[in-house]
C-alpha cells in the first residue's frame, strides 16, 4: 500500500486515494455507508437516507464516528459526499457511486475513496475510506456547498442493493481541538490532540521547576510548603523522611535542619529565613547582658541557691534568714511562697531561690537558664559529706558557679567542723582554712548563730564577681516556678535579670505570651515595677510556662503570640520525634570542628572499688596525651537517677553505668532528652570505647589531596559584579562541594578560597571532568584573567593516635 501524504496547494489539501477496496467491505455506492454513514439513499448498516445518520455525526451528511464533515464517511461508508470519519470532516462530496472521500481522524490521510473528499478537518484527512466505484465529485471546503456531481458508482461489495447516491450536503466539517486529560501550568508541557474530540489527548506531564540559587526556608514548615519552595516532589520528600525513620504525610511539619538535609540530597542550597519579628528574640540572658552599654550597667543584688544533703538543715537555714529579715522590722512579713525571696542587710539586698535542692537547679540549667550567682552548700557538722552532698558538689562544679560552704549545726555536741573540712577536701572542695579558695562559714540555723556572718560572706563573694545589669532596658528574666491557680489563672514567679518589668508590659515566655496584669512581691505587696535580681509573681499570661523559660518584654503582643505559637509547634515536633542529646558517637564526630576537648562523663557503678578501677584507667588515657582529657563530672554508686540525666543534659556529658542500671524515671528522661547511657560489665570494653571517642577528639591533622587542574580561557562579568571564569579542565575533576581552589598566575598563588558556583552552559552541575569546559565563580575573588591556572584540592583528615 502507498503511504499517505499531505500537501498544500493554493490553500487546498489533496488526499491520495486508493482505488481498490480497503478496510471493511463497503455498501453499494448509492446506499448508506457501512458503519454510520451515510449520504445518498438508504440501505447498508445503520445509516439513514439523505444526510445525517449513524453515530453522532457532525454537519451536513452523516459523519462517521463523532465528527463529520459533509456527506457520508467514516469507516468504509456509503455514497454521499465527502465526509469525515472521526472528528474532522471534509466538505460535501459529489454524488458518487463509490465512497465519499473523507476526513476522519485528524492528522491521517484519508482512505482513498471513490468519491472526492472534502477538506480534512482539524489537521488532515481521516482513515482511508473504502474502495468503491466511480469517482465522486470534487469536495467542498468545510461547511461549503454541495460538491459537484460525480459519476455513478457501481456496486460495491457488502450489503444493500446498488443505487445511485445523490449529492451529499456538506455541513461544517471542522474538527475541534482534542481534550487532553492532563493539565499543566506550563504551556510547553501541555500536550493534547488537536481536532480529535473522540479520543483524549496525550496526558500533560508536570515537571517541577527547580529554583536557581539558595532557597529560603522557615524554621518550621509542612512537607507541602517545603515541596513548593524547592520544587522537590512531595513523594520524594516523604520517601526521604521514611528512610530516616519518619512516617509522615504531606501536612506533616518538619524543621529546617531536616529540610536542609533533604534539599542537599537534591543539590539544592538552602538558608534559614528568620522572620523580622524573630530577629530580637532572646535565647540566652548572657548574650543580653553582654550587649548592654557599659555606662548603663548598675550593680545588682546577688542571686543565691542553697543546696545540701537531706536533713542537713537547708530549710531551717532559709527560715533563719527569713526570720532575721522579719525581726528587723520589715512590714508585711512572709505571706506566701513564690519560690524566691529577697532580704536586705546593711542597705544591700540578696535574693534567695527557694528551690528543692540541686535537682531544680540542674533542671533549669539544662533548659539554658543560669539564674544563680552563688551556691551555699550546707553540710551538717555532726554528719559529714553524704551522697547528696557529693552530688550537689558535682552539679555546682559543672555549672561553674562560686560556692560557699555553710557548716551547720555547730551547736550540737557531736559537731566536728574540722572533720567536715577534711571530708570536703577528699572530694576536691578545699576551703580557705586548708589553703583553698572556697570560703566556709560555721553557722547554726536552729540557734541562729552567725547567720549575719554568712550573709556578709555572700555579699563579699558577690563583690568579687562584679554583678551588674541595665535597669533601663526592656525586662528579661527567668521563670523560677509556675502553676495554674483555680482563682487567679496562670501564676508565675520570674527572676528579673536585666531591665525593669512593669504592669501592662507585653511579654513572651517560652511558648506562652501575655500582658502583665499585676505583679506581687514575695510578701504579697502589689508592685509597680521590678528591677534586676528581684523575684516577682506575675499574673496575665495566656498559659503556664515552664521553670527555666526566659521572659522577654515585647513591643507587640501579636508578635509575641506568633512566636509563642511557633515555639509550641517546635516543642510538639520534638515530642513526636527524637530530641538529640549527647552520645558517644556525637563526641566522636565533633572532632572535625574541634569543638570538644574535654570528654565529660557521669560514672555510676555497683561498688566503690569499680569506680576506683575505672577512674584509674581514665587517668592513664588522659595522661597518654595532652589534648583531650576525660572529665568525670560526677561519680557514685547505685542506680542511675533522673538527676544524673539532667546533669548530663546541662553538661553535654555521657552516662556510663558499670553494673548499674537507670531507674524508670531516669530511663524516661534519657529517652526524652536523647541522652546516651552506656552499660558495661567488663572494664576493658569500657576503656576501648572511651579511647575511640578520645582519638576522635584529638586535634586533627590533614593532608592535601589535589584533584584537578584547569586553564582560564575566558572571563565574563555578571550583573552582580562577580567574575565567571571560563575553564577547560586539563586534568582530574572539579567538584562543586568539598573542594577548595587556588588561582595561579605564572606559578604564583593569587588566591586560595572556595567555589561559589559551577555551571556547564546555563545549568548548575556537581562535577566537571577532564576534557570539558565549564564556568566557575571563585568566592570573594574577581581578579581572574585569561591565562590563569586553577588547582582544585581537598583536605583529607588523618586519624589521630595515642
UniProtKB/TrEMBL annotation:
Keywords: Cytoplasm, GTP-binding, Initiation factor, Nucleotide-binding, Protein biosynthesis. Residues 26-181 have a biased composition (Gly residues). Residues 299-468 form the Tr-type G domain. The keyword Nucleus does not apply. The keyword GTP-binding applies. Its main location: cytoplasm. It comes from the Bacteria. GTP binds at residues 308-315, 354-358, 408-411. GO terms for cellular component: cytosol. Transmembrane segments: none annotated. InterPro entries: EF-G-like_DII, IF2_II, IF2_N, P-loop_NTPase, Small_GTP-bd, T_Tr_GTP-bd_dom, TF_IF2_bacterial-like, TIF_IF2. PANTHER family: TR-TYPE G DOMAIN-CONTAINING PROTEIN (PTHR43381:SF5), TRANSLATION INITIATION FACTOR IF-2-RELATED (PTHR43381). Belongs to the TRAFAC class translation factor GTPase superfamily. Classic translation factor GTPase family. IF-2 subfamily. This is Translation initiation factor IF-2.
Amino acid at each position: 500500500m502507498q503511504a499517505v501524504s499531505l500537501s498544500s496547494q493554493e490553500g487546498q489539501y489533496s488526499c491520495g486515494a486508493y482505488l481498490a477496496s480497503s478496510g471493511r467491505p463497503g455498501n453499494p455506492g448509492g446506499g448508506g455507508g457501512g458503519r454510520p454513514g451515510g449520504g445518498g439513499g438508504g440501505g447498508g448498516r445503520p445509516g439513514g437516507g439523505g444526510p445525517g445518520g449513524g453515530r453522532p455525526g457532525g454537519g451536513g451528511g452523516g459523519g462517521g464516528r463523532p465528527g463529520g464533515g459533509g456527506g457520508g464517511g467514516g469507516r468504509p461508508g456509503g455514497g454521499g459526499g465527502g465526509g469525515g470519519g472521526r472528528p474532522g470532516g471534509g466538505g460535501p462530496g459529489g454524488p458518487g457511486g463509490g465512497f465519499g472521500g473523507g476526513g476522519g481522524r485528524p492528522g491521517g490521510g484519508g482512505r482513498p475513496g471513490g468519491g472526492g473528499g472534502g477538506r480534512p478537518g482539524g489537521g488532515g484527512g481521516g482513515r482511508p475510506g473504502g474502495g468503491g466505484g466511480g469517482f465522486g465529485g470534487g469536495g467542498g471546503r468545510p461547511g461549503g456547498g454541495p460538491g459537484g456531481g460525480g459519476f455513478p458508482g457501481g456496486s460495491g461489495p457488502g450489503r444493500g442493493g446498488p443505487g445511485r447516491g445523490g449529492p451529499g450536503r456538506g455541513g461544517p466539517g471542522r474538527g475541534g481541538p482534542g481534550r487532553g486529560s492532563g493539565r499543566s501550568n506550563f504551556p510547553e508541557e501541555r500536550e493534547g490532540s488537536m481536532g480529535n474530540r473522540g479520543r483524549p489527548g496525550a496526558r500533560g506531564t508536570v515537571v517541577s521547576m527547580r529554583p536557581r540559587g539558595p532557597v529560603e526556608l522557615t524554621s518550621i514548615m509542612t512537607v507541602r510548603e517545603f515541596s513548593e519552595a524547592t520544587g522537590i516532589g512531595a513523594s520524594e520528600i516523604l520517601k526521604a523522611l521514611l528512610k530516616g525513620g519518619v512516617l509522615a504525610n504531606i501536612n506533616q511539619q518538619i524543621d529546617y535542619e531536616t529540610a536542609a538535609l533533604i534539599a542537599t540530597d537534591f543539590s539544592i542550597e538552602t538558608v534559614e529565613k528568620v522572620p523580622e519579628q524573630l530577629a530580637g528574640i532572646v535565647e540566652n540572658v548572657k548574650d543580653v547582658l553582654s550587649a548592654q552599654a557599659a555606662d548603663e550597667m548598675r550593680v545588682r543584688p546577688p542571686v543565691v541557691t542553697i543546696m545540701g544533703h537531706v536533713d542537713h538543715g537547708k530549710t531551717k537555714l532559709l527560715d533563719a534568714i527569713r526570720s532575721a529579715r522579719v525581726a528587723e522590722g520589715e512590714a508585711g512579713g512572709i505571706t506566701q511562697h513564690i519560690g524566691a525571696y529577697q532580704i536586705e542587710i546593711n542597705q544591700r539586698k540578696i535574693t534567695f531561690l527557694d528551690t528543692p535542692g540541686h535537682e531544680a537547679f540542674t533542671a533549669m540549667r539544662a533548659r539554658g537558664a543560669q539564674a544563680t550567682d552563688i551556691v551555699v552548700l550546707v553540710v551538717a557538722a555532726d554528719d559529714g559529706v553524704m551522697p547528696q552532698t557529693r552530688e550537689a558538689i558535682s552539679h555546682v562544679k559543672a555549672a561553674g558557679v562560686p560556692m560557699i560552704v555553710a557548716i551547720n549545726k555547730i551547736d550540737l555536741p557531736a559537731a566536728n567542723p574540722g572533720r567536715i573540712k577534711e571530708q570536703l577536701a577528699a572530694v576536691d572542695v578545699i576551703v580557705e582554712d586548708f589553703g583553698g579558695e572556697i570560703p566556709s562559714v560555721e553557722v547554726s540555723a536552729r540557734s541562729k548563730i552567725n547567720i549575719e556572718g554568712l550573709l556578709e560572706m555572700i555579699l563579699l563573694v558577690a563583690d568579687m564577681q562584679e554583678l551588674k545589669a541595665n535597669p533601663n532596658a526592656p525586662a528579661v528574666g527567668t521563670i523560677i516556678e509556675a502553676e495554674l491557680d483555680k482563682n487567679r489563672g496562670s501564676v508565675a514567679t520570674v527572676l528579673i535579670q536585666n531591665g525593669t518589668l512593669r504592669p501592662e508590659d507585653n511579654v513572651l515566655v517560652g511558648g506562652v505570651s501575655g500582658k502583665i496584669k499585676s505583679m506581687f512581691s514575695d510578701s504579697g505587696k502589689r508592685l509597680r515595677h521590678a528591677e534586676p535580681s528581684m523575684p516577682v509573681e506575675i499574673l496575665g499570661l495566656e498559659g503556664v510556662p515552664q521553670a527555666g523559660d526566659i521572659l522577654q518584654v515585647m513591643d507587640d503582643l501579636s508578635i509575641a503570640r506568633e512566636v509563642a505559637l511557633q515555639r509550641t509547634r517546635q516543642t510538639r515536633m520534638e515530642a513526636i520525634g527524637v530530641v538529640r542529646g549527647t552520645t558517644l558517637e556525637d563526641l566522636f564526630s565533633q572532632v572535625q570542628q574541634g569543638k570538644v576537648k574535654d570528654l565529660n562523663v557521669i560514672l555510676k557503678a555497683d561498688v566503690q572499688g569499680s569506680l576506683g578501677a575505672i577512674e584509674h584507667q581514665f587517668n592513664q588515657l588522659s595522661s597518654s596525651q595532652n589534648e583531650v582529657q576525660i572529665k568525670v563530672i560526677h561519680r557514685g554508686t547505685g542506680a542511675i537517677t533522673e538527676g544524673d540525666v539532667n546533669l548530663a543534659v546541662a553538661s553535654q556529658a555521657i552516662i556510663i553505668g558499670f553494673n548499674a542500671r537507670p531507674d524508670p524515671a531516669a530511663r524516661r528522661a534519657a529517652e526524652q532528652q536523647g541522652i546516651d547511657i552506656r552499660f558495661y560489665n567488663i572494664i576493658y570494653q569500657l576503656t576501648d570505647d572511651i579511647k575511640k571517642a578520645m582519638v576522635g577528639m584529638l586535634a586533627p591533622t590533614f593532608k592535601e589531596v589535589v584533584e584537578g587542574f584547569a586553564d582560564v580561557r575566558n572571563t565574563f562579568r555578571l550583573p552582580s559584579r562577580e567574575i565567571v571564569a571560563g575553564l577547560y579542565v586539563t586534568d582530574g575533576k572539579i567538584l562543586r562541594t568539598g573542594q577548595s581552589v587556588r588561582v595561579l598566575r605564572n606559578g604564583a598563588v593569587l588566591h586560595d578560597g572556595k567555589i561559589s558556583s559551577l555551571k556547564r552552559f546555563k545549568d548548575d552541575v556537581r562535577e566537571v571532568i577532564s576534557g570539558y569546559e565549564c564556568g566557575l565563580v571563585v568566592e570573594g575573588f574577581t581578579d581572574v584573567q585569561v591565562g590563569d591556572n586553577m588547582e582544585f584540592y581537598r583536605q583529607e583528615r588523618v586519624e589521630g593516635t595515642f
